[in-house]
Amino acid sequence: MTQVQTMTNPELNQALAVLMGWKAGGDPNKKRDFVWWIDENRFRLPENWDPCTDPAASLEVQAKAIEVNYELYVDQLSIVVYGEENYNRASNWNEWDISRLLIASPRERAEAAYITLSQVTT
75, 119 in Cβ contact below 8 A? Predict the structure, then answer.
């Protein structure tokens, strides 16, 4: 997990975009070096998509991570939030523990999504 913790926000944002399946490509408006193409008709501007600080963008990467492996994502989020790799969620969680995961910061959600997506897609 330390690798993701040392990444800057722009580095983590770029890595997440790639793991989401987006491709860097030319800007149709020719105003920037590149944009993130989601598909052939939709793109995101890199400066407007920041899952490390933007709650909406972090929920987008969280949704993708949950889609590909919800158990792994929840485990990784608990490790990021609590910092305990041996935290047994099934037998130890109470309402407070769960509520803490629900209010995870965008950066925490982004880190957990990165770990999940990198393990599933590699």
Answer: no
Helices (H), 1-105: 2-5, 9-19, 55-82, 89-92, 95-102
In sequence order, the 6+-apart residues with CB closer than 8 A to the CB of 103 are none
Segment (H or E) for 116? helix 106-121
pTM of the model: 0.84
> Count of CB atoms within 10 A of residue 72's CB?
17
43 by DSSP, 3-state: which? strand
- Bridge partners for 37 per DSSP: 23, 43
**Backbone φ and ψ of 25, nearest 5°:** -155, 180
State the total domains in the chain: 1
What are the angstrom distances between the C-alpha of 25 and each of 7, 37, 57? 23, 6, 20
Q: Which domain holds residue 86?
A: 2-121
Chain segment 42-84, per-residue pLDDT in tens: 767 777 789 999 999 999 999 999 999 999 999 999 999 988 7
> Strand, helix or coil at 23?
strand
